[in-house]
Amino acid sequence: MIAERAMALCTPDGLILEARVSEPSTSRGGVVVCHPHPLYGGDMDNPVVVRATDVCADLGLATLRFNFRGVGGSTGTHGRGIAERIDVESALDHLRVALADDAGVALVGYSFGALVAAHVAPGRPELAALCLIAPPLGFAGASLPPALATFSGPLCVVAGTGDEYCPAAALDSLREVLPGAQVTVVESANHFFFGKLFPLGEAIATWARAAFPRQE
Questions:
Q1: How far is 26 from 72, CA to CA, in rounded Å?
Q2: Cα–Cα distance measured from residue 16 to residue 166, given in angstroms and rounded to the nearest whole number
Q3: Which of 9, 63, 167, 205 is deepest in the core (most CB within 10 A)?
Q4: Which residues contact 13 (CB under 8 A, 6 or more apart)?
């Protein structure tokens, strides 16, 4: 496990978000990780969120994971994926200020968190990279914003071949809409990556290395 400290994030609309942050003494970048749906038990201690956080920290990156409003020790109530965008913005702002001026900040979202992250990313031109894990595109009304096609940094989408909420047809459509995205499929993984956290971590690590190459 990585060394993290507990902290409280303040949002512009007056909420306090429970968070954990890891800030190496020297880091070339940082990553905010967003958890799955709060109404279905999602929180920052989800195994996929922890795996993503650990992988990025092992590469020497600062990390910040947090509970969306109304989850765990975070104040407020569920905002249907819209108010949660404020939470993500607050996390990105905190990490950007905490790091050196020349350090980049990237964003990872899993399931519900992937949808929220995808809507935030186009409005953050300074964002170094974006990783969407198992975006639930099979849900009615769930879609990625058209503006995501303008995102210029490394964009990775990871899903399993057995993902019941992100079916193969949705991934095929995504490849057409986002031709610049690296779409990685984890064989036999379902939406929760049971037994497949290792290959998931490898995909995240490949994305993170591209986003934050080591200086020789």
A1: 30
A2: 32
A3: 63
A4: 83, 86
DSSP letter assigned to residue 154: -
Owner of token pair 């020790």: 73
Sort residue 108 into left (φ over 0), alpha (ψ -120 to 50) or beta.
beta
CB 57, CB 2: distance < 8 Å: yes
Token pair for 74: 């975070």
Q: What is the pLDDT along the chain (216 residues), one digit of tens a residue?
A: 578 999 999 999 999 999 999 988 777 899 999 999 999 999 999 999 999 999 999 999 999 999 999 999 999 999 999 999 999 999 999 999 989 888 899 999 999 999 999 999 999 999 999 999 999 998 867 789 999 999 989 999 999 999 999 998 888 988 998 988 999 999 999 999 999 999 999 999 999 999 998 764
Whole-angstrom distance, CA of residue 79 vs CA of residue 21: 23
Nearest to 128, CA basis, from 153, 148, 101? 153
Distance CA 56, CA 205 (A): 7
Domains, the chain: 5-211 (3.40.50.1820)
For residues 187 and 206, is the Cβ–Cβ distance under 8 A? no
Instruction: Please give the Cα distance from 38 to 36 (Å, whole number).
Output: 6
Q: Give the C-alpha separation, 9 to 12, whole Å.
A: 10
Q: How far is CA 47 from the centre of its chain?
A: 13
